[in-house]
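Example 9 (inverse folding). The structure is encoded as follows.
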């Protein structure tokens, strides 16, 4: 489509920016989250190639990503925070937006905001929207215990569309009772289910995780904004050591998201009319060719714990809206908080770990840094740079939130295109209609392990977590095991998936063991022989 034929309301990305600092590096300032986001926003304004002050004055919507420190019920910011994060950042750059948004929790947030704000612009709801996010986790942790900690509190007031935490459905009471709340533990359940489905040994699967992420470390090592710019081999990533301690089987520390970062990123989206008025050179324009936003079923309602079909549907639909296939992409960034977040989508799109295009642009959450909910804003910034470097090429960003729970996707290119609507709402209704396994409220009796993990504490303590199915009727249940060496041995060797266990429920929740005789209490079942444990 010729540039001159574009509808003036067509959304276009006109500027991106990133900022970062590492404690101990020259020039370290100890910036607050607001300070980091403002620094990134200034660079986004400069990146337009237009007058930064005029671009800031044109911003009528400021949308901020929620920091990790305010992403959980009852959470408090140790060094204080702004009462209106979007407006604090806007004020630092000379913007006075009509609307301010604070997005819900989740790594999908940055790409979702770009999709949403672009749609708003296409409908005439706004003309120039600035999306941004930041984390100063490393600085906050380092300074919180100092004798004279800084105060990051700001009182700016003003209207704010605070969308809340958005955690509904991510963690149920039964999951919490059985220790299925932390991200490594939940993702490990999915990872082990995938390993078992593929029929791979623990050793082979670990090697595969290392091979997947080793190229990510090379990208991170060359990225000036990376929190851990160190290239590592595939073997080094998965070999347990004192520094690379086990977290939750099959994960060691090096292959899980790194949250100790000081990073910020910003994206400026404007209408074609606004871009022209500001004088943004056309070679800076990048168009959103495809987009999708979908939500997966809640954990215990998923038919197959080794996959997230909703994420795959989002990725495939974004490509469909763009009118291309995965083979047409010139660059990709697949959200990488844990290996399965990458392989879940890569498997479906036919992307190998050694794809010559690479599977990350920024370097991935374990190595570039898992900037709270904001990693994908950095990925979008990198995708815009990549699209400009390869005019007419297509760059894909996949952003994951929750526990393989929410997925937002975008396809970027300098090739001009009008706004394209998507069918995410229709696809979401399809997902919501899928049949869900029945859950047993008080499971009792023989069962089979559907998936599992063993979580490792810093002091060497271990806790087994199991999702199982009752042999009698196939109902699903969560359970734990603590201090039972026999069950921990079962979960730590060979193939536990499909193994036979006995589950019993009390007021404190459900517990599994290898034989009913090992269950304490007046209702213990008759002794069964040890070979029953594996069926």
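The amino acid assigned to each position is listed next.
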């Amino acid at each position: 489509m010729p540039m001159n034929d574009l509808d003036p309301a067509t959304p276009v990305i006109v500027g991106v920016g990133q900022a970062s600092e590492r404690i101990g590096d020259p020039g370290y300032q100890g910036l607050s989250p607001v300070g980091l986001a403002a620094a990134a926003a200034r660079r986004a304004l400069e990146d337009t190639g237009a007058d930064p002050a005029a671009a800031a004055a044109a911003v009528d919507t400021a949308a901020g990503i929620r920091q990790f420190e305010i992403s959980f019920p009852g959470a408090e910011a140790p060094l204080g925070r702004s009462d209106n994060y979007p407006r604090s950042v806007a004020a630092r750059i000379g913007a006075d937006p009509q609307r301010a948004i604070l997005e819900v929790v989740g790594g999908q947030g940055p790409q979702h905001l770009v999709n949403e704000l672009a749609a708003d612009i296409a409908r005439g709801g706004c003309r120039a929207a600035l999306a941004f996010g930041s984390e100063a986790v490393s600085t906050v942790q380092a300074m919180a215990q100092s004798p004279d900690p800084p105060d990051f509190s700001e009182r700016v007031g003003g209207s704010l569309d605070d969308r809340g935490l958005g955690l509904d459905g991510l963690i149920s009471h039964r999951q919490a009772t059985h220790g299925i709340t932390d991200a490594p533990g939940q993702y490990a359940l999915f990872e082990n289910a995938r390993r078992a489905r593929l029929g791979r040994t623990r050793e082979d699967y670990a090697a595969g995780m290392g091979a997947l992420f080793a190229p990510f470390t090379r990208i991170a090592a060359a990225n000036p904004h990376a929190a851990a710019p160190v290239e590592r081999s595939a073997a080094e990533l998965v070999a347990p050591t004192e520094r690379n301690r086990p977290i939750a089987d099959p994960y060691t520390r090096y292959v899980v998201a790194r949250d100790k970062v000081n990073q910020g990123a910003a994206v400026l989206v404007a209408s074609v009319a606004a871009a022209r008025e500001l004088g943004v050179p056309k070679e800076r324009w990048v168009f959103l060719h495809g987009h999708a936003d979908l939500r997966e079923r809640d954990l215990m309602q998923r038919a197959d714990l080794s996959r997230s079909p909703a994420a795959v549907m989002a990725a495939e639909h974004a490509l469909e809206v763009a009118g291309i296939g995965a083979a047409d992409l010139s660059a990709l960034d697949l959200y990488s908080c844990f290996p399965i977040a990458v392989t879940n989508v890569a498997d479906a799109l036919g992307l190998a770990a050694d794809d010559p295009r690479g599977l990350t642009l920024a370097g991935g959450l374990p190595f570039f840094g898992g900037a709270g909910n904001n990693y994908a804003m950095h990925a979008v910034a990198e995708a815009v740079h990549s699209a400009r470097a390869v005019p007419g090429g297509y760059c894909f960003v996949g952003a994951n939130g929750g526990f393989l729970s929410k997925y937002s996707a975008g396809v970027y290119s300098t090739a001009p295109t009008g706004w394209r609507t998507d069918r995410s709402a229709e696809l979401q209704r399809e997902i919501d209609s899928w049949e869900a396994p029945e859950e047993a409220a008080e499971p009792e009796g023989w069962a089979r392990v559907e998936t599992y993990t063993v979580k490792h504490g810093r002091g060497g303590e271990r806790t087994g977590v199991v999702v199982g199915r009752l042999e009698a009727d196939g109902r699903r249940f969560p359970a734990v095991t603590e201090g039972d060496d026999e069950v921990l041995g079962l979960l730590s060797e060979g193939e536990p998936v499909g193994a036979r266990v006995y589950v019993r429920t009390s007021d404190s929740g459900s517990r599994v063991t290898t034989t009913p005789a090992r269950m304490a209490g007046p209702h213990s079942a008759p002794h069964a022989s040890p070979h029953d444990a594996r069926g």
